[in-house]
Amino acid sequence: MKSLQILLKALPIAAVAVLIKLFLLANIHFGDSTVSALIEISDISIVFTGAFFVMGMLLAGTMTDFKESEKIPGEIAANLEAIQDWILLAFRAPRSGSTDLAKEPLDPEYLRTTLHNGSRKIVEWFNSPDKDSWKIFPMIREFNKIAYYFAERGVDKEAIKGVQENTNAMRKQLTRAYTIARTSFVAPAYTLLRGLLFFIIVLLLITKFKTATADIFVTLCLTFVFVYLYFLIVGLDDPFDATSGDTEVDLKPIDRFVKRMEQDFLK
Q: Which end of the chain is more exposed for a tag (fewer CB within 10 A), N or C?
């Protein structure tokens, strides 16, 4: 059902357009002619062609950001996996330092909880409606606490460096996700898109087709296609909008990492 949400939003609008068309044919007349005799389909075919062209360009623009967004959850999951591996290395590599902390064994529960809570909060942030930067960026610093913890206890420097590098990489990826989520497509382009959609539906309502069947079928199909394209472009413009549910980016890589970690990491 999730993949059908745009279809379920577009179909009722197309059905309403057909009902309006039938009402106009039955009740609105200009002399001996109905409202659909105002314009011939051959007169406005170029309008439909141009509308498809414009919507195609807008769709291509939003698809570029969407394709880039699809990579972000996988890259974040890879960074979390790498941090997990660096933590495991810290337990096996020899430690240096003469302080009391350097002589203490590492606390697996602290490390496991810090990594788990940070990973879970990333998923919660992606699923939040507001994508608040005041929540995600301070939370990312929590992963650096693992590096600080290691540094105080004389853990191998490569492990410390690895945790910091992967944390910085996640910060860049989440910054890109935040930018995509908070930046809409060019506002005048949306104005053009809505205007095109309105005029296309109006033209379909007053255009003359050869038969009554064509009146209903063509009006239904073209209205559905244009409305579907509109909702698709709007959905692709914010691929991290968890409330829409139809064009959001799949967070499965991060979800799967969290589940794997809950099962066996440092247990």
A: N
Residues 6+ apart with CB under 8 A from 89: 156, 158, 159, 162
Domain-wise residue ranges, the chain = 2-264
| C-alpha–C-alpha distance, residues 93 and 56, integer Å | 56
Phi and psi at 200, nearest 5°, equal -65, -45
DSSP of 21-71, one letter per residue?
Answer: HHHHHHH-EETTEEGGGSEEHHHHHHHHHHHHHHHHHHHHHHHHHHHHHHH
Based on its alpha-carbon atoms, the radius of gyration of the chain, rounded to whole angstroms, reads 28
pLDDT digits (tens, 9 = 90+) for 140-196: 888 889 999 998 888 888 999 999 999 999 999 998 888 887 776 666 777 888 888
Task: Give the DSSP per-residue string, 195-247.
Answer: HHHHHHHHHHHHEE-SSHHHHHHHHHHHHHHHHHHHHHHHHHH-TT-TTT-SS
How far apart are the C-alpha atoms of 179 and 127, rounded to whole Å? Answer: 15
The CA-atom distances, in angstroms, between 216 and each of 25, 167, 223 are 11, 57, 11
CA distances from 14 to 4, 10, 32, 196, 218 (A): 15, 6, 28, 15, 10
Return the pLDDT at 55: 85
The pLDDT of residue 72 is above 70:
yes
Sequence-distant (6+) residues with CB within 8 A of 21 are 36, 204, 205, 215, 216, 219
Determine the Cα–Cα distance for residues 76 and 125; give it in Å rounded to an integer.
13
Rounded to a whole number, what is the largest CA-CA distance in the chain?
102
**Regarding predicted confidence, which is higher, 176 or 207?**
176
For residues 232 and 66, what is the distance between their CA atoms, to the nearest angstrom?
A: 11
